[in-house]
Structure prediction request, 961 residues.
Amino acid sequence: MDWDIVIGIETHVQLRTNSKQFSGASTAYGSEPNSQACLVSLAYPGVLPVLNKEAVNCAIRFGLATDAEIASRSIFARKNYFYPDLPKGYQISQFELPIVNHGKLSISINGKEKEVRILRAHLEEDAGKSLHGIVQGKTGIDLNRAGTPLLEIVTEPDMSSADEAVTYAKKLHELVQWIGICDGNMQEGSFRCDVNVSVKKKGDTKLGTRREIKNLNSFRFIKQAIDYEVNWQIERLEDGEKIDQATILFNPETGETRAMRSKEEANDYRYFPDPDLLPLEVTANMIDKIKLSMPELPASVAERFEKNLGLSSYDASELTANREVTNYFNNVLQFECSPKITANWILGVIFSQLKEKDISISLCPISPAQLAKLIQRIEDQTISNNAAKKVFDALWQKPNTEIDLLIDELGLRQISDSGAIDQLVEEVINANINMVNEFKSGKEKAFNALIGQVMKASKGKANPAQVSEILKKKLTI
Amino acid sequence: MINLSLKSLNQGLVKKKFSSLELTQFFLNRVEKHNSDINAFISIDAEKSLTQAKHADALIQSGQNSLLTGIPVAQKDIFCSAGWRTTCGSLMLDNFISPYDATVIQKFNEVGAVNLGKTNMDEFAMGSSNETSYYGSVKNPWDLSLVPGGSSGGSAAAIAARLAPAATGTDTGGSIRQPASLCGFTGLKPTYGLVSRFGMIAFASSLDQAGPMAPSAEDCAVLLNVMAGYDEKDSTSINHEKEDYLANLDEPIKGLRIGVPKEFFEKGLDGSVQKVIEAALMSYKKMGAELVDISLPNTHLAIPVYYVIAPAEASSNLSRYDGVRYGYRAKEYNDLMDMYFKTRQEGFGEEVKRRILIGTYVLSAGYYDAYYLKAQKIRKLISDDFKKAFEKCDVIMGPSAPSVAFKANEKKSDPLAMYLQDIYTISTNLAGLPGMSIPAGMIDNLPVGLQLIGNYFKESQMLNIAHAFQKETDWHTRMPDGVS
Prediction:
């Protein structure tokens, strides 16, 4: 039997604000436990929440970036439950009236554009952390994270494979960094996904029962968890069993999912509007102000790259995957390098180096100016493409070296003097009469072999185009 | 120094008739003498109070004083006060020393007032007789076998017995006005949002409001001048233009239209209380005011609505008392759930637990629409009643409470009878309007309070109207026997 997979994603994006959602405490990561827990974070008697305006601005930025409706009035509600790392006994969140509604995000699947609808995005605060094993037999509570601002972004169930889900998650991850609302650090929990998965018989209009995989903080885990979960659900259904709605956890070590104990999830959260906070009013004026500070969005930049610079759609989208890459690319182009060659260098040589060293482009030792110089030396035929890669490797080790000095030091300057090449070609012809004859009797391959000989004789420094030209001339006389 | 107005005390201090140190010591002595009978205070810290008094004397010496500098003020134990134990009348916070000042406390400190001590109160401000306090019930100084009203019963008894010249209270459904009525002094619950709630331990956030308690309207104006003001730490505080509440006290009230709601004089009101109120209304008429019949048709819904909304908010507000970070924690427990259960079972009293249960119930899935949402809709209707009424009148008057002070234990086991104590006061909290109680007469040597309800931010006018009455009468200056 064939099955349709239906996936929706809820992402918790930690907003890049200096202070917490409802207090002035710092949000810096990795401090001493409870050193950033102010009286509000600790839920002392009598303290009150005051909304962080910067977090609201972040939500508006996200709404603008996804072409969403930004609610002129939204409501903060209390989600009530007891847990030691939830100091107030309730989390302040937006329930019935969120700040962002009905947005969309385009993803590219096998070259085809697909739109993922964003149902809503709402502001809320994070909980603290329970620390096990620090004190023997006891649980420690660290409230540094308690109250950290989050934007929870909820999609419609628009994705139909693990690949689509991962593509969406990556795209969203790029976008929230691009618009400056999240640092994107997944290890530190700045971007975490809850994935809702269900399956239904192919073509059925009615959705199957979903299970929600909680708290996935890497793209690899998203893929693994969905693959496992989909198989699990299909197997059950094919065995004639029923799926129960459940909240489940993914274990990265076993690659399996398991349902949480019903005790862990059986909560009636008793939502009601928080009487300590007024309805959040967003005016057209506020939105207009934020619009002015919005960067051009990646999709638009990519379109421009394709149209104006003649890049392929793949290259354009790769170069707009994050703002640092785009900036790097633009900075190289400032030196009037060929966009195509620049794109190839960044996406090829530089990316493979970055990947090998596991660093981001912001830590690339070779500056855009240096790369531009290198590309100019290819364009003005001072060095060949192959030689340029050698220069690049040397440059990676000694990033501040002057490129021209390095080229000479490595002896890679290309021979473009036609007299010198003429002489080399002459020598090769004389030494390889057999090959010359083969060529003359119609064996095209022999021509390339002769070029190879000339290149070898020049230690790779001869300009291949010139060699080819001169050789052809001499052989066809 | 006893029974002097705040203005007179200020004159005494400024003219060096006595120092703040002497004044503070005088009231500390009175507390020492009477508190064992009345139980008005939970915490007294003479050293702290006297240190503040010395500081105040220095301010007065250097001429940097205002009206409240050096004057002892009793603070309801619901206001967090740095370095003071702040219990909210509960075992749950018995060991809680506040690390910070509520905005109200900070404002008193800024003008050099002296914190005389923390007054007893119903546990988490839940009660109308001050019998739910973990620290024992408070006695009414007019008759020690009677209750002082609640929840600000400690502050009320302290004023009535002149253990303090002024006090603060909070009013969620009548907790300033009903005790003011039962103990015979002036109490004002301001418009919701006029006084900051920051640092005031929450009972029902959308209803709680702090206000002044003192013998006279003039004293209350002095206190409100300090207490009122926008606070960025309280998102529900309103940025209302700063007023001088003393400025209009002596305005003529001729032509004032007093609305008299017929629903406040129906079944349930004690007949002799009704006579006192009617006599007070006649006095106003003599002063040139006009009495206008009005109707507040949804008055009968105020108590049911209140007992949905207030417990709903309370059930959530009191979730933080979980034994994890501060306050009471059960001595023995097996695991986390057991710790929660035992801590809250032992740490909270009966009435608090009753309201947490009601609140949890009305917010539960399946009941929310029928209770909480419906209550919010009726709350709007109640506000609309007042809106209409204020088209016909400038101020509304009626009784503050249905009876004079009642016997201790009389209603303790009958919550519904107890809840009816607030029948005339609750609707103003639901509407966010200012309400006030002033002494209007006595029945068998027990005080009766007249309630004034004003339109939003009309505190200045209300104080003016009350002051006009107090210029003609002396009920507010009367003191119980045996406390002089």
Q: What stands out?
A: The radius of gyration of chain B is 21 Å. Chain B has a mean pLDDT of 97. Chain B touches chain A at residues 79-80, 86, 88, 93, 96, 98-100, 102, 197-202, 204-206, 232-236, 312-313, 315-316, 318-320, 322, 324-327, 336, 340, 360, 363-365, 368, 372 (CB under 8 Å). The first strand of chain B starts at residue 41 and ends at 43.
